[in-house]
Structure prediction request, 410 residues.
Amino acid sequence: MKALVYRGPKNVRVENVPDAKIEQETDCLVKITSTNICGSDLHMYEGRTSVEEGKVLGHENLGAVVEAGSAVRRVKTGDVVCLPFNIACGYCKNCERGYTGFCLTMNPGSAGAAYGYAEMGPYQGGQAEFLRVPYADFNCLVLPEGAEDQEDDYVMLADIWPTGYHATELACLQPGESVVIYGAGPVGLFAAYSAILKGASGVYVVDRLKDRLRLVEEIGATPIDDSKGSPVEQLKELTGGAGADKGCECVGYQAHDVSGDEHSNMTLNNLVESVKPTGRIGIVGVFPSEDPKSKDKLEKQGKITFDIGKFFEKGLSMGSGQCNVKAYNRHLCDLIAAGKAKPSFLVSHELALDEAPEAYKHFDERDAGWTKVVLKPDARKAAGVRERSGKSKVSPIRKHEQAKSAGTRG
Prediction:
């Protein structure tokens, strides 16, 4: 089968790899029809993790079940399913308590397993034609009839929308409260989208990329451009000096200033300044236990300089950790089915799997307009660049290839 394979920093290739297959009687095999590139994939792409060469990437996956193991009872061949990025057993102590992102069974010696990710177990990812799904009855979200016509909405249930929602839950955001979100990448935008759905009175989102800030405004939140000055001061000006009731960190350890210099503590310390006394912060941006390629001595060890004094004085609290997708995906699925939410607003590109290496390059460089890429292993379903109206035009990648084959310069 064809799959996207990691071959080193900024080097991913579509290759032929051994076919995914059922290995345990509780598995199912899914033909992937939509699979997203995630911002956290870029940590591996940039060489900032220990991911092994040869790993098939991709943890935001949707497709149709083509085979089910003999012990699978609920999931049937032909079901269209969305797969939480967490691979969970369903019966360990953490899974029983709902912490499926911290399963104690699927990645021995660690809490938590995932498809196609560094140190998250031996599982291959879904940026491929087929994917093996362990414990299929537990891990598959069977989608409602007609889901094939809204794949770009439903595929967001694999990770990115539940993770954004999780940020607001970690912050304990309540209806009528205000929230400031640092980062308007896909996770930050979905945190803002979730906050609006939950009835927040004010949603403020900090970033500096114009296309991201435009989307912030389009969904009804207030953009804050930190290239124009201190985001803390801008927030206080917008809130009469008060700040926000709650805060969400949706950037992680590769946060950088306007000059491009990394400061892993930047967003967290800004949140301490931005959130009102007794408020709460939800952290879903990735912070690894070590970052050997950081230029900072502390950050190499997975540590940062944190404003603990101000945090304590203000009586703040925080919650952190990766999302337990199954805690939210069914409810969010129902919102899509009922026409109450359309998370595909974020999708900028639908591309064939063969175009994935070039897509990674554009997404990693934060090129204008590359907000969310959905890969289609069946190239016939790849619409190219999506217009916000829902129409599409020819992908610039494909357009360039067409120009070359026609003998012209693209």
Remarks:
- The first helix runs from residue 41 to 45.
- The CA atoms of residues 352 and 380 lie 8 Å apart.
- The chain has 14 helices and 17 strands.
- The two ends are 31 Å apart (CA to CA).
